[in-house]
Structures are given as structure tokens and as C-alpha cells.
Amino acid sequence: MNEAQIQYGYIEKAKQIISEKAREKGGSLTCCVQTFGCQMNARDSEKLSGILRAVGFEEIEDEDADLVIYNTCTVRDNANQRVYGRLGVLNGFKRRNPHMKICLCGCMMQEPSVIEKIRKSYGFVDLIFGTHNIFKFAELLVGMYESEGMLIDIWKDTDQIVEQLPVQRKYPFKSGINIMFGCNNFCSYCIVPYVRGRERSRKPEEIIEEIKSLAADGVVEIMLLGQNVNSYGKNLENPISFAELLKQVEQIEGIERIRFMTSHPKDLSDELIQVMKNSEKICRHLHLPLQSGSTKILKEMNRRYTKEQYLALAEKIRREIPDISITTDIIVGFPGETYEDVQETIDVVKKVHYDNAFTFQYSKRTGTPAAAMENQVCKEEVTRHFDELLAVVQDTAREQAKKLQGQTLDALVEEINEHDDSLVTGRLSNNMIVHFKGGKELIGKIVPVYLRECKGFYYLGDMQ
Ligand code: SAH
Ligand code: SF4
Ligand code: F3S
Questions:
Q1: Whose CA is nearest to atom 5 of ligand 2?
Q2: Residue 195 and residue 73: Cα distance in Å, rounded?
Q3: N or C: which end of the chain has fewer CB within 10 A?
Q4: How many angstroms is it from 69 CA to the middle of ligand 2?
């Protein structure tokens, strides 16, 4: 028996337990899955939902449920603090519903200090597991219901990739697909390699097969996920480049849009630029994290490119694919960062003209090399630098957005507008959002939209 078959066995067993509990309750058991992290974390949540539904839970949005699972993130400290804050609220629900189960998983759980703290101060938690054994969720559920007290199962690492388990997609028409797991880059500020383990690529055949079945199920847009997709395939038995994988994905009938995340600038090949340029389906959007514009700081960050190399790369991409939108991530306040370093970053923002940038204040992550650096920047200075950078980022993004006003572009309709239900919200190939008149029958369809008015970071438009 392979691992997936073993887990399907546990799904059957969990089903019996849950149906017994539902009989006692006099109605189906409810569950709530909360995602705290990135797209990969969100994709993992879809796997958790898939298992929970397969064993008989009814999934709801409300955390006052019979089972709540937090899929945590630890990339910055504020993600951790949110989890601790909300656990208090869950405890309140559990006091009123003693049968309630509280589960924690995801990146934060890979940190021993976190487990220590939860053991000590959050004794009401029922199940804790990490990022490496999420495929065992059905087995862990059975274990949790069959035992008393807190069940903890954390693995340090794994080379296992378990295929073919149930997944419940959040959107019927679009989906993320893991193409690789883990990260080998060890940027000096980043905890991801420690909590996600070493880089492992899925076999191209498995990826293609999964995308084909998604297409057959009505998915038109896919996002290929990995911490550094540009190094995809290098360690496979039969090595293959990311660009080559994209070419194969492009052939799949029914898939109309292809996105991917994230690209590390050091590994972005000319081959990839050409594949993007010649593709009908790959979206006109590239997320290319800069982190810092100062070559000195980049070196300390272990990013393995210089300011000049990054600028040359961005320029080449804009030259080859003029209608592409480039977005980025920037960290302010890395140890030793001076006002002059921040000016270098601002200089890159102005030169690249980012269509959008996510700016973060540096957060010290225990166990990373940067956490041990002595020259940490004080909070006030970080805030000042951050505000100055943010103003420039917003100006450039606004200027970029204005450029498309008056054009007609295809939008994939994602949902009814949150504030006005006579409008729908669509996403352009370049990842920008447009709101226009329409109803729910448009959801999942790609339609041409005239971009009437730019509202800064989104458009108001008219379907053509
Ligand atoms: N693999 C992706 C990034 C994943 S984390 C990449 O390399 O691009 C997403 C973003 O969080 C990073 O790009 C970085 O900007 C930010 N980040 C990571 N660690 C951080 C830290 N310790 N403090 C602040 N921001 C951080
Ligand atoms: Fe973190 Fe760097 Fe890996 Fe991205 S590439 S996940 S920033 S170590
Ligand atoms: Fe967070 Fe883990 Fe993603 S730390 S950013 S959820 S890989």
C-alpha cells in the first residue's frame, strides 16, 4: 500500500467517528479552516478542507464550530501574534461547546519555542502538527478523537510527496498547484527554509496530470506555486527547467491563464522570459522580490544579486514584454540598513516603476543569521524609512495603473463586488482588479472590459 492508500483508510475510519458524533449531536458536525499565510499556506488549507469534508464535516466560515483549524504562518512576528490573540477567543467558544476541537498546523508549529508556549499556556488545544506531515491529517484526526489531551506530531523534515489526496478548492474556476516544496536559499532574514524544509520538486507528469484534471473540472486559471519557481526541476532524477514545464502546461486544453509565484531574481533565465513573451496563456505579471536596493544590504541578506544586476534584469523584462506588470516585496529595517541604503531602494522603485510593491518592516526571526546580527535598526528609524518608501511605492503604482485607462482588456470574473451587488469584480492578466456591472452568471468567465476610470489601485469599467 502506498501512503495515499493508507490515508484513504484513515479517511474511512474518521468518517465513522464523525458520523457517530453527528448522531449524538443530532446534526452534522461543522468545521472552520483559517489560513494565516501565503498562497502555499492557502493551498494547504484546501487540502485540509478536502479531508474534513471527505470525513463528513460541514464547512462554515464561523469559528464557533465543532472543529477549528488554524493554518499558521511565522514569516513575520505579527502573523504569530494574531494566532495567539485569536486562540483566546476560541477558548471562549470551547467553554460553551466542550466537544469542540481546536487544531493548529502550518509553519509556526515547526518552531520548538512555539510548541513549548502552547503546551504551557494554551492547554485547550487538541491537535498540533507541522508542514511536513499535513498529508497525514486524516490519521491525526482519528488519533485526536481516540485520545485525550493534546496530540502533537511535528516532523523535522521530509522528502516525501504524497499525491492524490482529496482537495476542496476555494474557487471553482481557479486553483493553485504546488510545483515544489521548501526552499534552499537561506536568505539571512527568512525563516521559511527552517519551517518548510529543503527544496523538493514534484515530477512534471504529476503536475500535468493534476492540471488536466483541474481543467476537466472547470478550472481556467492556475497558479504554479513554489518559494522559488525558477529553480524548479533542477534536482529531479530527470532534470527539467521551469520554462520547459511552462511550455508543457501551456499545451493543456481548457487552461486559459497561467500564473506563478515566486520568482527569485538570481535564477530568472532568458529562456523563461522568451517563453513568457511567446505565450498566449501566461499572464502579464511577474512578482520579482527585490527586498533591498542596496548592494551592501543584499549581500548581507544573502540574496546573491546586486542592485545593478536586478535593474538590468527588470529592464530586460520590460523591454521584451512591454505590457508586463512587475510587482515586488521590500523589507525595511534589515540590520545595518542606513538612510542611504533606503535611498538606494527608493531609487530602484523609481527606475523599475513597480506596478505594486508589498513593503514589510523587518521582523527578527529567531534562528536566522540576521537575528544574531548586532546592528539591529531601532523601531522609530524603521518606521520613518518605511513611510518614506511607501509614499514612493504608492506614487509609482498609481502612475502605472493610469496607463491602462481607456483600454479594453480581458478580465476573469472572480466574485460579486463586496460593497455593491450590482457589480462584479474581475482580474486582468496583469493582476489588477476591475469592477463592472454584471451578475453571478459571469463568475468564472473571461470577458472583455473597457477600463473607464482608474481609481488608484483598481479600475471601474464596462463589459464590452
Ligand atoms: N520565497 C519568496 C518569499 C516568501 S516570504 C521569495 O523569496 O520571494 C514573502 C516575503 O516576506 C518576502 O519576499 C519578504 O519580503 C518578506 N519577509 C520574509 N522574511 C521576513 C522578515 N524576517 N521580516 C520582514 N519581512 C520578511
Ligand atoms: Fe525566504 Fe529567500 Fe527562500 Fe524566499 S527565497 S522563502 S525569502 S529564504
Ligand atoms: Fe508564512 Fe509559511 Fe508561507 S511562514 S509565508 S505560510 S511558507
A1: 185
A2: 10
A3: N
A4: 26
449 bridge partner residues: 409, 463
Q: Report d(CA 101, CA 69) in Å as an integer.
A: 8
Once rounded to an integer, what is the mean pLDDT over residues 3-14?
97
Residue 246's closest CA among 265, 227, 218, 269? 269
Residue with cell 520548538: 112
pTM of the shown model: 0.96
Relative orientation angle of helices 242-250 and 204-216, to the nearest 10 degrees: 30
Give the Cβ contact number of residue 323 at 10 Å: 12
Question: What is the grid cell recorded at 146?
Answer: 481516540
Q: Is 339 in the pocket of ligand 2 (CB under 6 A)?
A: no
pLDDT given for residue 244 in this prediction: 97
Percent of the chain topping pLDDT 90: 97
pLDDT digits (tens, 9 = 90+) for 84-127: 999 999 999 999 999 999 999 999 999 999 999 999 999 999 99
If phi > 0 it is left, if psi is from -120 to 50 it is alpha, else beta; for residue 83 that is alpha
pLDDT score recorded for residue 164: 87
Q: What is the distance between the alpha carbons of residues 291 and 385, in angstroms, rounded to a whole number?
A: 14
Encode pLDDT of 54-69 as tens digits: 999 999 999 999 999 9
Task: List, in order, residues 6 or more apart from 54 with CB less than 8 Å away.
Answer: 11, 15, 138, 166
Give the span between the Cα atoms of 91 and 290, in whole angstroms: 40
Taking CA atoms only, the protein residue closest to ligand 1 atom 2 is 227
- Ligand closest in space to the Cα of 130: 3
As a whole number of angstroms, the longest Cα–Cα distance in the chain is 66
Whether 369 lines ligand 2, by a CB cut-off of 6 Å, is no
Atom number in ligand 1 closest to CA 263: 8
The DSSP H or E segment spanning 193 is helix 192-196
Position of cell 533565465?
269
If you take atom 4 of ligand 2, which residue's CA is the nearest one? 227
Residue 245 grid cell:
514545464
Helix (H) or strand (E) holding 317: helix 307-320
Contact 91, 124 (CB under 8 A): yes
Q: Using one digit for the tens of pLDDT, what is the confidence trace for 418-462?
A: 999 999 999 999 999 999 999 999 999 999 999 999 998 899 999
Closest atom of ligand 3 to 131 CA is 2
- With a cut of 90, say whether residue 255 has pLDDT above it: yes
The pLDDT value recorded for residue 457 is: 86
24 CA → ligand 3 middle, Å: 38
Judge if the beta carbon of residue 257 lies within 6 A of ligand 2.
no
